[in-house]
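Module 6 notes. Inverse folding takes a fixed backbone as the condition and produces residue identities as the prediction. Think of it as a translation problem where the source language is geometry and the target language is the twenty amino acids. Below is one complete input and output pair. Work through it position by position during the lab.
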């Protein structure tokens, strides 16, 4: 279970709302053993100390240096699909080992958020990523940043040097996996794809166009297909 606080041996802590619901659904009792993680690496053995109507207190035990991260850090920069599809994309990308997610607002984006609403969306998506970590056994929660305009993201210099642009261009080549220890940024468009001007901007920022085949994949399918293909090397 994820705890959004730094853990330490012998500490007493309260579980978050999602973890409390999990305890209630499983009908756990005081004394039951739990495995916790705080997103900073490894996991912690713990024991339920007290269960109230709305809160659960646990005693933290020993730390275990368990890591389940992919050797290749993949950052996903994605034009946000609308409705619940972004939630599903975050969930499945986390399960597939994504290292970080940068939601983007593009010219053809259906979902457009900024300011306080963008921060709220990012907080919600971080909770989705944490829940996905609980489900799949990861103990490091991938950061999900607040949405940025595509041009602002491309102007930044803190991206990996290996950069893929998922493209429908007929001249785009099949992807080649970079070395396992080399970070990679995968850029994927929204519904309707990138405009020609946006693709040109991405190429100018050092992104290499790659093709996932002859079929047109949905905005929430294409990045997951790329992540799954990369993850196969780690299996």
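Target side of the pair, the amino acids:
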């Amino acid at each position: 279970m994820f705890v959004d606080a730094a853990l330490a041996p012998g500490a007493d802590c309260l579980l978050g709302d999602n973890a409390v619901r999990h305890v209630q659904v499983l009908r756990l009792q005081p004394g039951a053993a739990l495995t916790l993680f705080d997103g900073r690496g490894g996991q912690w053995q713990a024991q339920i100390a007290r269960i109230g109507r709305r809160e659960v207190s646990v005693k933290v035990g020993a730390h275990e240096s368990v890591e389940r991260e992919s050797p290749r850090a993949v950052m996903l920069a994605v034009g946000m699909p609308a409705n619940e599809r972004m939630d599903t994309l975050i969930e499945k990308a986390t399960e597939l080992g994504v290292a970080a997610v940068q939601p983007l607002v593009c010219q053809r984006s259906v979902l457009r958020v900024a300011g306080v609403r963008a921060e709220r969306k990012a907080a919600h998506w971080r909770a989705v990523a944490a829940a996905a970590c609980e489900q799949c056994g990861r103990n490091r929660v991938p950061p999900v940043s607040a949405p940025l305009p595509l041009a602002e993201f491309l102007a930044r210099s803190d991206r990996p040097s290996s950069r893929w642009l998922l493209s429908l261009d007929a001249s785009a080549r099949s992807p080649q996996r970079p070395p396992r220890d080399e970070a990679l940024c995968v850029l994927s468009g929204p519904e309707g794809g990138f405009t020609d001007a946006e693709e040109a901007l991405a190429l100018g920022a050092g992104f290499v166009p790659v093709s996932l085949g002859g079929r047109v994949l949905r905005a929430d399918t294409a990045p997951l297909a790329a992540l799954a293909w990369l993850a196969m090397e780690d299996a």
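Reference fact for the lab report: The chain has two domains: 12-64, 74-234.
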